[in-house]
Amino acid sequence: MTRYQSLSLADAADLSRASVDVTAVLDHLVGDADAAAATSIGFPGAVDLDYSEVITRLGNRLWNNIGDPLDEGGTAHTRVLERAVIAWVADTLAMPADDRWGYVTTGGTEGNLSALHAAHRRHPTARVYYSTAAHYSIPKIVHMLGARGVAVNVHPGGEMDYAHLAAQVSRRRRWPAIVVATAGTTLTEAVDDTASIRAVLDEHEVHGHLHVDAALSGIPLALDGRLRLDDGSGIGSIAISGHKFLGVPTPCGVVLIRDSVRKAAGRIAYTATLDTTVTGSRCGLAAALLWHAIATHGREGHHWRATQARRLAAYAVDQLNAVGWRAWRYPHAFTVVLPTPSEQVRKKWVLASDGPISHLICMPGITHGQIDAFVADLAAAAPPRLIPRPRLRPDGPPSPSGTR
Ligand SMILES: Cc1ncc(COP(=O)(O)O)c(C=O)c1O
User: Is the domain covering 56-296 a CATH 3.40.50.620 domain?
Assistant: First the structure.
């Protein structure tokens, strides 16, 4: 028996004893994670990029980007790399250079909080509309802000029901609207159509703010030219996760907000920084990791990664259907939706489930071999109860701005 196998990590009190074998504990954690990796296909973290250069060179000291990314000074920081990341993501989204601001966050949730906080400061009486397929962080943030939230129904595939949005807006037209569109819902990777949302607001003559929660799909859709924050888009802000498509080995993300939406922030005397971000101290290592992904692969490299991952997702749908498991996906998606299999299969493959449907996600780095092994397990399992495949809107050509 190896040292790590003989160690139990169940007892936290044992682990904080001064005599604990630290190396064995770390070996145990790495061993468990390595053992689980081959069957981890349910959560959206890419596993194909190698960040060891950054971890080796920078990983053993504090890099603190406290304050605003445009601040200078302080001790060791990576704000110059953070500014490069913000510029790259904003350029990829065609965001106007004279009306943009952003920073590297702890993840999609902080990005949503930062953007909705800015929108709520500008429109304090606004009602906040979001679909029932929106991430759970959205209603939580609405509650934290003390705002009024309005849930909007979705179509069976997870995309917002714009007729229901119109009905909800029409009953509240005397208040401004903050609408959260999701670009890549958590369960099915559905993309809300920002042009349809804008049309609803225009028709009801309601002004406000349009935020896009693009935690998973922001970068791949932007690289396709299908998600744009240009002037015509009417989109005021976007939040993206860094540990999803870019597979950064620490939770992180990027938020971008139109500068014209933000209100002035205070200067903190003792840090000599502007208080523009949700947290004070901020992880400079995350900014360096994001920058490394961008600098080493560029737009073409990341577009290629997205294309390969989508091909694998299409392959997974074909293979599942061939063994009688009725699976489907959106044409842009890495996510493959299928009827929920037995608990044994779900646990082994770490699938995310919501009642009758589950998903696997073909993130960059997942292999044909993993998909084949998963399909073999399903082929051997009890046949699924059939779930109807939702009628998806045709995946039309990109609109000149916004999402489609
Ligand atoms: C649509 C959506 N928004 C936000 C989040 C939250 O992102 P994070 O875990 O980076 O805070 C997720 C995570 O799964 C998500 O799917």
Answer: no
**Architecture label for domain 37-48+298-380:** Alpha-Beta Complex (3.90)
37-48+298-380 against 56-296: fold identical: no
Instruction: For residue range 212-267, list pLDDT tens digits in order.
Output: 999 999 999 999 999 999 999 999 999 999 999 999 999 999 999 999 988 878 88
- Which of 220, 375, 232 is CA-nearest to residue 304? 220
Conformational region of residue 324, where left means phi above 0, alpha means psi within -120 to 50, and beta covers everything else: left
Q: Does ligand 1 come within 6 angstroms of the Cβ of 108?
A: yes
Q: Is 379 helix (H, G, I), strand (E, B) or coil?
A: helix
- Return the axis-axis angle of helices 162-170 and 194-203, rounded to nearest 10°: 30
Expressed in angstroms and rounded, the spacing between residue 383 Cα and the centre of ligand 1 is: 32
> How much distance in Å is there from the Cα of 342 to the middle of ligand 1?
26
Q: What is the pLDDT of residues 5-29, one digit of tens each?
A: 455 666 777 787 778 889 999 999 9
Residue identified by tokens 């989204």 is 93
Q: How far apart are CA 19 and CA 90, in angstroms?
A: 50
For the chain, which residues make up each domain, given as ranges? 37-48+298-380, 56-296
Stretch (H or E) spanning 122: helix 108-122
Mean pLDDT of 36-57: 97
| Residue 244 Cα: closest atom of ligand 1 | 10
* 109 CA closest ligand 1 atom index: 11
Query: Atom 5 in ligand 1: which residue has the minimum CA distance?
Result: 108
